[in-house]
Amino acid sequence: MTGHKFKIGEKVQLARDPLNRKTGIYEVMALLPEEHEGWQYRIQDPQSKQQRVVIEARLSEVAGA
After folding, report:
1. Which of 10, 26, 49, 64 makes a 20 to 30 Å CA pair with 42?
2. Separation CA 61–CA 33 (nearest Å)
């Protein structure tokens, strides 16, 4: 069993989803339990401070971060 790919405080790139929600660079705020689709994360938009929960498959590393 592997663990979370990203750490708290790490910057991540959020991929577009089928509902065309906002993409961009977010900060990992919390590591959440694994669900059916994989590990989950609570991430936060640095500008608006809005948080959301996403699965790991929608996140990627930020180049140069």
Report:
1. 64
2. 20
* Distance separating alpha carbons of residues 28 and 46, to the nearest angstrom: 10
Average the pLDDT over 4-18 and give the result: 92
CB 27 within 8 A of CB 41: no
Q: How far apart are CA 26 and CA 60, in angstroms?
A: 10
Tell me the per-residue pLDDT of 27-43, one tens digit each, with 9 for 90 and over: 999 999 998 889 999 99
User: At 23, is the secondary structure helix, strand, or coil?
Assistant: coil
Q: Evaluate whether 14 touches 26 at the Cβ level (below 8 Å).
A: yes
Strands (DSSP E) contained in 6-50 are: 11-14, 24-35, 38-44
The pLDDT of residue 65 is 61
